[in-house]
Design goal:
Low-confidence stretches: 11-15
Mean pLDDT: 89
Radius of gyration: 21 Å
Largest sheet: 5 strands, mixed
Strand order of the largest sheet: 2-1-3-4-5
Strand content: 5-15%
Oligomer: single chain
Number of helices: 12
Structural class: alpha/beta
Length: about 300
C-alpha cells in the first residue's frame, strides 16, 4: 500500500517538473475567482501550457495589514477576520496553498528564468496586493511585468461599452477580457523607479493600523473604520424612497448599490459588518434572518 502511494507521489512530482519546464510565465493575481477567469482566458488564446497562475485569497482593501510579511502580522489579520469576517476566515482555512504565508514562500522561490506578470485594476484591493507582491519580489533582478486592466481599457480601443471604465476585473466583458489576455498577456515591464516607489508605498501601508483602504487620486489611502457608514445610510434611504411605502429593502440590493456607487473594491462581508454595527447602534432596523444578504431586509430606524 505504502509503495503504491510513494509511486503515485513520484508520478505527480514528475508531472509537475515537466509542467514547470514548459512554463515561461508566472502570473500573479489577487483572488481565486479572477485566477479562474485568467486560466480560462489563457487557454482560449493558447497560452495556458506555458503559464503558471498564482493567486492570493485575500481582500487587501479590508482588514489589518500591519507587518503582514511577518508571522505576527499574519496572525493579527487572521484574528481580525475570525472576529469580523468569518466567511473570509473560513475560506482561508480551506485554501491553504493560497494563504499569505504559503504565497510569500512561493513568490520568493520563483526562478529568475521565468517572466513574472502581475494582474491588477485600479482599486484598493488590487493596488495594495500589487505593492505587497512587488515588495516580496524586491530581490528579483529581472524586470517585473504588470497588466493593469483599467489602464489598458482607458488607453486602448478595447472597451466596447463607452461608459465608465471597470475598476474590477470581474466587471469586464468576457470577450474583452480574453482580448486583453491575448494582446497584453506578457505584461508591460515596470519602470525600475516606479517599482521602488511601489515597494516604499507598501512599507508605508504596512506600518498603518487601518482596517479599510480606498483608491483615490491614484493612491491607496487608509480610511477610518466608519468611512462607509454615511454611504450605507444614504443608500438605504434612497432605496426606501424608491419603494415609496418606506418598506425595508433587501440587504443584497443595498450591497450591490454601494459597490456600484462607490466604485471601491470592498468585501461584501465588511459592508455587512458595518450594517450590523449600525443595527446595534439603533440607526438601522432589520427583519428576517441575520445570515446571507438575501435573507434579511434593512431600513432606517424611525426612533
Amino acid at each position: 500500500m505504502y509503495k503504491l502511494i510513494e509511486h503515485h507521489a513520484e508520478i505527480v512530482h514528475h508531472e509537475r517538473l515537466q509542467e514547470e519546464k514548459l512554463q515561461t510565465h508566472v502570473h500573479i493575481i489577487f483572488s481565486l475567482s479572477n485566477a479562474g477567469s485568467l486560466k480560462v482566458a489563457l487557454s482560449q488564446v493558447g497560452k495556458r501550457e506555458k503559464s503558471r497562475v498564482l493567486a492570493f485569497n485575500e481582500c487587501f482593501s479590508t482588514g489589518p495589514i500591519r507587518d503582514l510579511s511577518t508571522a505576527e502580522g499574519q496572525q493579527r489579520r487572521q484574528i481580525w477576520l475570525m472576529e469580523h469576517d468569518k466567511e473570509a476566515y473560513f475560506s482561508n482555512t480551506i485554501n491553504l496553498e493560497h494563504q499569505i504565508e504559503r504565497m510569500i514562500e512561493t513568490l520568493k522561490t520563483i526562478p529568475e528564468s521565468k517572466n513574472v506578470v502581475i494582474w491588477c485594476a485600479d482599486n484598493a484591493h488590487d493596488q495594495t496586493g500589487l505593492r505587497f507582491a512587488l515588495y516580496l519580489l524586491r530581490e528579483r533582478e529581472r524586470p517585473v511585468h504588470v497588466v493593469n486592466v483599467t489602464q489598458i481599457l482607458k488607453e486602448s480601443s478595447l472597451q466596447q461599452n463607452k461608459g465608465e471604465t471597470p475598476v474590477f476585473q470581474s466587471w469586464i466583458e468576457r470577450g474583452t477580457y480574453i482580448e486583453i489576455v491575448n494582446r497584453y498577456g506578457d505584461g508591460i515591464p515596470l519602470d525600475s523607479d516606479l517599482r521602488k516607489r511601489y515597494e516604499s508605498e507598501w512599507l508605508e501601508l504596512e506600518g498603518q493600523d487601518h482596517v479599510l483602504r480606498f483608491w483615490e487620486e491614484g493612491r491607496v489611502i487608509g480610511c477610518e473604520e466608519d468611512r462607509m457608514d454615511a454611504l450605507i445610510l444614504q443608500t438605504v434611504a434612497e432605496l426606501q424612497e424608491q419603494h415609496h411605502s418606506g418598506d425595508l429593502v433587501k440587504a443584497g440590493d443595498v450591497l450591490s448599490s454601494i459597490l456600484e456607487m462607490s466604485r471601491q473594491f470592498v468585501s461584501y462581508s465588511y459592508i455587512m459588518y458595518r450594517i450590523w454595527f449600525l443595527v446595534s447602534e439603533g440607526v438601522l432596523t432589520f427583519k428576517g434572518f441575520p445570515g446571507f444578504p438575501h435573507q434579511f431586509s434593512i431600513g432606517l430606524s424611525k426612533a
